[in-house]
Amino acid sequence: MTDGLLRQRRPHPHPVPPQRVRSPDRELPTTVLATVDRTVRGATPVASKRAAAVPWVLLGLAVVSWIASLLRSDISSAGDFGLLATVDPTYHVALVLLILGLVVELRRPIRRSGLLAAQVVMLVVIIHGTVPALSPLPEYAWTYKHIGVVDFFVQHGQVLDQRDIYQLWPALFAFVADLSTLTGVDPLLIAQWEPLAANLIFTLLAFAIFRTLTTDSRLPVIATVICVGINLPGQYLSPQDFGYMLCLGIFLVALRWLRTAPVPASRTVGSSPLVKARSRWSARVAGHYLVRRRTYIITLTLVHLMFAVLVASHQLSPYILLMDLCVLVLAGFVRPWWLPVSLTVIAMAYFAPRAGYIASAYSLFDGLNVVQNAAGTSPAWGTDGQAFSAILVRTLILSVWALALLGLVVARRALNELAVAGILAFSPFFMLLANSYGGEAIYRVWLFSAPWAAYILAYSVLNLRLPARLSRKVPRFQGARTVAGTLALIVMTVAMIQGAHGQIEVDYNTPSELEASRYLYATAPAGSTFMLAASSFPARSTAAYNDLNIDYGGDPDLINELHLKDHATLGPAVLPTLRGRVAAGGGPEQFFVISAGMAKYAHYFGYLADGSLERLTSELMASPDWTVYHRNADTVIFRLVAPTGGP
Amino acid sequence: MRAATSTGTTRTLSWVVVRAALVMAFAAPAAVLLDLPPAIRFVCVLTFILMVPGTSIMTFFPVDEAAVRAGIVIVTGMTVFAGEAVLMVWLNLWRPVDGLVALAVPCAIALAYDVLLRRRATGARR
Fold this sequence. Notes:
The structure holds two protein chains of two kinds. By secondary structure, chain A is mainly alpha-helical. Chain A has helices spanning 30-43, 46-72, 82-86, 89-107, 113-128, 130-134, 143-156, 165-168, 171-183, 187-213, 218-230, 239-257, 273-286, 293-311, 317-330, 339-361, 370-374, 384-410, 415-426, 441-462, 468-473, 477-501, 504-507, 511-523, 558-561, 574-584, 596-604, 612-622, and strands at 529-532, 590-595, 626-631, 635-640. Chain A has a four-stranded mixed sheet, with helices on both faces. In chain A, helix 18 (384-410) crosses helix 22 (477-501). The relative contact order of chain A is 0.10. By secondary structure, chain B is mainly α. In chain B, 81% of the residues lie in helices and 0% in strands. Chain B has helices spanning 8-33, 38-58, 66-90, 96-125. Chain B is globular and about 50 Å long. The two termini of chain B are 18 Å apart. Residues 1-6 of chain B have low confidence and may be disordered. Chains A and B meet through helix 9, helix 10, helix 12 and helix 14 of A and helix 2, helix 3 and helix 4 of B.
């Protein structure tokens, strides 16, 4: 049997180096713990049984409270402060009860994995399942562009347009189209519930990855809970979500099966801290894993297969992953050395035929201005609600990064536990050296950094100790640490929800807006053009998305075209300007679209004075240059009557 | 050698997962071919994607840890299904039902072979 094992992967004769034991379960395998747990549970007195029932009761109350909040909430009338200010207070009660239950269970000497799993799943459901449950349609206007591509593949089943970036990276869209075709389920419904499904998978993968990094049974759970609380992926059906899932899968395979072999301690004497950390990490965490040659080959193949699908899914994610893997390989944590090379070949082979078009239509290199590349998409805040959400999220992100950095510094003597997480938490920052990704680069950095930062935070919380002289002065330090940790977790989770759904009034789409959008695509002559009053509209949601506004640069909107901001007012002079801009679009017919969602968008971001779009609607109705092409409860589509040719 | 260090619980779970995956390898194509209601088809096909390709690959290198196994099974299944879908798109061979059957057949063979091996191993131990 030994012949079947790679030689360098034999377990180290002393896989667990001597170290301070901080908790009894560090030395006990999970299976032993489970046995002890069962034994103890069978013999616990009544009081202990009651104490053991507390987390279950809290979970049950949280579920009931959350369901009650769903029945009593209406987010169609959300205000500037978003979901948290709109939902029934029972939602907040559910969140707090659930987190309290989690903390109570984690404080028990022997924890029940089934209960912890149920609590974490419920946390994901409360955070990511509420909006889908309360909305008639998928959240975010830009989700509908993706639904249109899915619909395109359902109808055509092939790539027909080599200048359409979505068709050039089609893996996710083909996946959903395939699923929709086989099942007959509307892609809209799939998109609506995708955030919940994606986050459940992300959570599972994050937990599995954390399990490969440590032998402490509490650390992966706490890290997962923090990760669920602070991360912002899985907001809508998108290639980056799918790519992120594949990246996590690749990390899992690499850290589980492709890590380097442990080096005997005698050979690391006098070596750098990183070499020692690598050796200790491999030995301590991985010493008992025996990787057979067949497994090694299969897992390597699996990584390449996942990466091949990843490069066909998203433009940016493969390169962030490559960067992370490069650092891990260079630092000696992952093998083989040629893995980043072979993956780069795959990425380049995919990108090369598309490079010409991408370079002509998009920016590949935005310069070495890190500050500019790190700037987000909102340079200014239009309402108190937007400012509140933005400040809260930025504070959350900067705090987590600062605390993770502090945690690394404090735990510098235990880098064997944190080296991998430390590398992966901060290596995504290299991305800011090259590209702003349309203002989204900083969000990508956070996305790829957050799980590892969460792991470092969890480690820091678990290993926070006062010096002996101080511990006598603060006898209740452990209790205070638990209370502070619980409060911090609640605050971080609330901040993340505010960041994700703080602008729900803008991101909430109504069926009548979608109906108007689809009516336009179904009835307007191919090649026609339209302008939106604001970009918040579920456009391009059908297979015919490239029949109108064929310029591949998105749909023009009045606010951007006229650079309107600071609560601008639309005076009478705007009518001829608007007419000219819309007419300049060309095509058989030209349209202008105004919806209730656009008015909310203009208000929330402070682009227009309140009531501006309503007045513009009235003026357009009175104008002889325009006719109402379609009208429903929330949307009016105007058609330009005058012939094309400008004002 | 396979699952040599696994506990009784994980071995039983693995048994259940492999058998369930084998059932789904037949159930999902059947649900689609029989044109059952969308809700049933959706559950069957989604379960197939999340379970069958990944489990059939995992029969070649079993993992004891449930979370790691579940994660790999799900990501592998989605990778394989997405890979197949994108190939159909690129090759202009958009036939999702045929694609599902083509995916189900090798998976079913691998899973059935694994079940057979396990049965033999169980019989030999007895």
